[in-house]
Structures are given as structure tokens and as C-alpha cells.
Amino acid sequence: MGGDSQRRDRSRPGLVARWRESADQHLTPTKRSLIVTWLSFGVTWGAVRLITHGIRDGWLPWGNITAAGRHFHHYNFGIGTLAGVGLVAVRGDERAVGHPAVAAAYGSGTALIADEFALLLDLQDVYWTKQGRLSVDVSLGILSALGAYLTAVPFWHECARVTRHHLVSAAKREAR
């Protein structure tokens, strides 16, 4: 009996393969790029939050990046990243413009800038003041998740349906 169920399992596509099929059915190249952009925005933003807290609270082994005694804020790296993405776009090479790495760089660069937007607005380092920090953190997290979801609603619904079917089928196989 164990051999039969193993043979059946190999003949069925795995969950990741079914997600890929759903992506092929529901996502245009533009939607794929937008999803990568939103997801890289969220991951970068979350990583930056973690790193900045680690530096500030002293539980990470490194400190801020400085040159000649001047602190580099992460929005500086975001601006540099977006300038590079802009160069790729201006050059107009279709393969490069639509490449997932360009979408990821765009999302990451935007997150680096958005995370320090208050500093750019006031030109004062208000990054760690309590007023509004939590609301900005929550807002950017929600924005990232909402953007990724709204970019391809049918795809996400299909992924949920496929995952639910996969889990129910696996549970039925286990019960036998």
C-alpha cells in the first residue's frame, strides 16, 4: 500500500508546480513585475525595520554606515537604487526592463526611501520619535501587502483554491 501511495504522489504535480500553473494562467508579465515589486518593497521594508532596531538597541554587531563622520541614511541607498532602475528604463532594453531583478530593485529602493519619508519631508532626523512611528510602520506594511494582493486578485484566489485542494487531498490520503 505504501508503494501505491508513493507512486500516486509522484504522478500528481506538487503544490509549488500548481502555483506556477496558476501564475502562468493568471499573471501577465506586467502583473508578475508588479507582484515582485510589492513583495520586495515589503521584504526590504521589514528587513530595514529589523536592522535599524538592531543597530539602535545594540543587539546587532555593526553600527550605522558613515563616511567622513557623516551618517548615511538608508534613503540615500534607495535613491541610488532608483537612479539605477531609471537608467535601465531609459536605456529601453525590453528584456532588462521587464526582468524580475529590476522590479525587485525598484520595490527595494522605494521601500528604503519610504521608510525615512518623514526625514525627507522635514529634513530633520525624526526617525525615532514616538509620534507617528507606529502608524507609519503599520501603514507601510499594509500598503505592501495590499499592493501585492490588488495587483493580481484572481491569481491569489486561484492559489488559495489550489492550496486548499492540495491540503484536503493530502489529508484524505493520510486518512487512508
Overview of the molecule:
With 176 residues, the chain is mostly helical. It is 77% helix and 2% strand. It has 9 helices and 2 strands; from the N terminus they run H-H-H-E-E-H-H-H-H-H-H. It has a two-stranded antiparallel sheet with strand order 1-2. Helix 2 (15-26) runs antiparallel to helix 9, helix 3 (29-57) packs across helix 6 and helix 3 (29-57) runs antiparallel to helix 8. The chain is globular, with a radius of gyration of 21 Å.
Mean pLDDT: 82
**Unreliable segments of 5+ consecutive residues:** none
How much β-strand is present in the residues? under 5%
Q: Please count the helical segments.
A: 9
Shape: globular
Number of strands: 2
Distance between the termini: 10 Å
**Which class best fits the helix and strand makeup?**
mainly alpha
Round the Cα radius of gyration to an integer and report it.
21 Å
Helix content: over 70%
Q: Which strand order does the major sheet show? A: 1-2
- The run of helices and strands is HHHEEHHHHHH
Q: In this structure, how is the largest beta sheet organized?
A: 2 strands, antiparallel
Oligomer: single chain
Q: Characteristics of this structure?
A:
globular; 176 residues; mainly alpha; 2% strand; 9 helices
Summarize the model shown.
The chain has 176 residues and is mostly helical.
Ordered list of secondary-structure elements with their pairings:
Elements: H1 2-11, H2 15-26, H3 29-57, E1 66-67, E2 70-71, H4 74-91, H5 94-97, H6 100-114, H7 117-122, H8 133-151, H9 153-175
Antiparallel strand pairs: 1-2
